[in-house]
């Protein structure tokens, strides 16, 4: 059996009284397009932050491509790319300068960085904006330059926290194309989202998280089971059948003040 891309065992994290991640176990296979899905506040960002070495767990272990994230951080960080939520970029650099800087930090030779940066900027439709400061980029452009920076060193596993949030359909299609090509070559993508249609159309493997716990994980078809859509299966799994907004908000509508 090939080694899993990610192996998480009994992961816990609390912020004061707030339990964010409560005993997560995950085994994510290599070479798959994997979606980590869950409602707002489910613990997706906290889990991904601990898996990528950005946040120290209270308890539990994480291995990425066979290396312990907290005992062997340099080995892991050389093999992964990360696009965190609310990514803070060095935004007084231009897009091209940011990639040049990232490439050198990753230890790539200058000529290789130049070549890869040119190709990534081109494929991601950023060639025209490559000399503009990142601070002046739109949300979608920031996601795309962040993705380029995360891919530049050709990582084995790419982690993306809500990569399509705030991205228009054209840019989403571009990002999607790049990610499909990347997984097609045997690499692994793990991304978080609460947009079920997106996960259903992109992923071949999903993990469902709610209230800090994994509710299901496996191939998409297995997690969907007999439900017509992933959305339906998800609502069943997280036990959210929707409050009756019609009775709760009986004052809403028509603009009357009484
Ligand atoms: N730094 C923090 N301090 C305090 N509470 C936090 C912190 N980060 C997360 N939490 C809490 O932990 C829980 C899980 O949050 P997390 O951001 O991991 O969820 P999420 O699934 O990524 O949500 P969303 O889809 O809304 O981004 C929430 O209750 C959140 O309020």
Task: Describe the structure using short key phrases.
single chain, 258 residues, alpha/beta, Rossmann fold, six-stranded mixed beta sheet, four-stranded antiparallel beta sheet, 10 strands, 36% helix, binds adenosine-5'-triphosphate, ATP hydrolysis activity, ATP-binding, antibiotic resistance, ABC transporter ATP-binding protein
Please characterize this protein's 3D structure:
This protein is an alpha/beta fold. It has a domain of 165 residues: P-loop containing nucleotide triphosphate hydrolases (Rossmann fold, 3-Layer(aba) Sandwich). It contains 10 helices and 10 strands. The mean pLDDT is 91. The site of adenosine-5'-triphosphate has 12 residues, from strand 2 and helix 1. Adenosine-5'-triphosphate binds next to strand 2 and helix 1.
Question: Summary?
Answer:
The protein has 258 residues and is of the alpha/beta class. It contains ten helices and ten strands.
The Rg value, from CA coordinates, equals: 20 Å
Largest sheet report: 6 strands, mixed
- Small molecules bound: adenosine-5'-triphosphate
β-sheet strand percentage: 15-25%
Which parts are unreliable, with pLDDT below 50 for 5 consecutive residues or more? none
Question: Which percent bin holds the helix content?
Answer: 25-40%
CATH superfamily of the domain at 4-87 and 156-236: P-loop containing nucleotide triphosphate hydrolases
Query: How many strand elements?
Result: 10
Q: Name the helix and strand elements from N-terminus to C-terminus, one letter apiece.
A: EEEHEEHEHHHEHEHEEHHH
Principal-axis shape equals globular
Q: Number of helix segments?
A: 10
Structural class estimated from helices and strands? alpha/beta
Major β-sheet strand ordering: 6-7-8-3-9-10
Determine the CATH topology of the domain at 4-87 and 156-236.
Rossmann fold
Q: What distance lies between the first and last C-alpha atoms, to the nearest angstrom? A: 67 Å
- The CATH class label of the domain at 4-87 and 156-236 is Alpha Beta
The appropriate CATH architecture of the domain at 4-87 and 156-236 is 3-Layer(aba) Sandwich
Mean pLDDT: 91
Keywords: Antibiotic resistance, ATP-binding, Nucleotide-binding, Transport
GO cellular component, one term: plasma membrane
InterPro entries: AAA+_ATPase, ABC_transporter-like_ATP-bd, ABC_transporter_ATP-binding, P-loop_NTPase
Main location: membrane
């Amino acid at each position: 059996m090939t080694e899993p891309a990610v192996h998480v065992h009994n992961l816990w994290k609390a912020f004061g009284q707030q339990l964010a991640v409560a005993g997560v176990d995950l085994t994510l296979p290599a070479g798959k397009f994997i979606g980590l899905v869950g409602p707002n506040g489910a613990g997706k960002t906290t889990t991904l932050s601990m898996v990528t070495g950005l946040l120290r767990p209270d308890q539990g272990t994480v291995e990425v491509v066979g290396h312990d994230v907290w005992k062997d951080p340099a080995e892991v960080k050389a093999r992964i790319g990360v696009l965190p939520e609310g990514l803070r970029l060095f935004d007084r650099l231009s897009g091209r300068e940011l990639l040049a800087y990232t490439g050198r930090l990753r230890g790539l030779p200058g000529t290789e960085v130049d070549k890869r940066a040119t190709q990534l900027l081109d494929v991601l439709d950023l060639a025209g904006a490559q000399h503009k400061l990142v601070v002046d980029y739109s949300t979608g452009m920031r996601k795309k330059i962040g993705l380029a920076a995360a891919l530049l060193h050709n990582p084995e596993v790419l982690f993306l926290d809500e990569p399509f949030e705030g991205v228009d359909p054209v840019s989403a299609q571009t990002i999607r194309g790049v990610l499909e090509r990347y997984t097609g070559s045997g690499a692994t993508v793990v991304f978080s989202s609460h947009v079920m249609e997106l996960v259903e159309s992109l992923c071949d493997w999903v993990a469902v998280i709610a209230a800090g716990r994994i509710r299901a994980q496996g191939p998409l078809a297995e997690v969907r089971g007999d439900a017509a859509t992933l959305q339906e299966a998800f609502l069943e799994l997280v036990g959210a059948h929707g409050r009756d907004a019609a009775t709760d908000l009986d004052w809403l509508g028509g603009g009357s003040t009484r």
